[in-house]
Amino acid sequence: MSDEYRAVNPNQLMPTLIIDGHTLTQSSAILEYLEEARPQTPLLPKNPADRAKVRAICAIIGCDIQPVQNLRVLNRVGEEGKNEWGHHWVTIGFTALEKELTKTAGKYCFGDQITMADIYLAPQVYNATRFGVDVSKFPTIARIDSNLAGVDAFCRGHWSRQPDCPEELRAKD
């Protein structure tokens, strides 16, 4: 991690978004900001109960699955155990997530409109694959991910297409 990034985000974790003269960190804070500052592109449904359901899906991913596989945790687990660790926790999390998504999913996590939940899901499916999780065992998750892969904004937003992606990992278009 560069000294420049450490100065921008002292927590030294991803993500960081610099927008409208603000430096924002943490996925939920960034997405809530975008929801409020860019209402023409809503990331949450209008109905409060539906909004809560989308936030719950986000929390399953962002609070229950992802934190136990972030770099700080994986470094502590050690090189030899990190794949088993990641596989274990993603599988447990995806088992719960799959059950929730069968109640809410349409084309995407919550019906047929892209929401915050989809933004949380896409990178988590990548992590699942990285840890050798057979995503086909989670058909709703796999179907949603396949649908998201066809959305231009998700393709352009992929980590391998970002300007700070190391050249050796950068997507070759």
UniProtKB/TrEMBL annotation:
One of its GO terms (biological process) is glutathione metabolic process. Residues 47-167 form the GST C-terminal domain. One of its GO terms (cellular component) is cytoplasm. Residues 1-42 form the GST N-terminal domain. Pfam families: GST_C_2, GST_N_3. Keywords: Transferase. Belongs to the GST superfamily. Zeta family. This is Glutathione S-transferase.
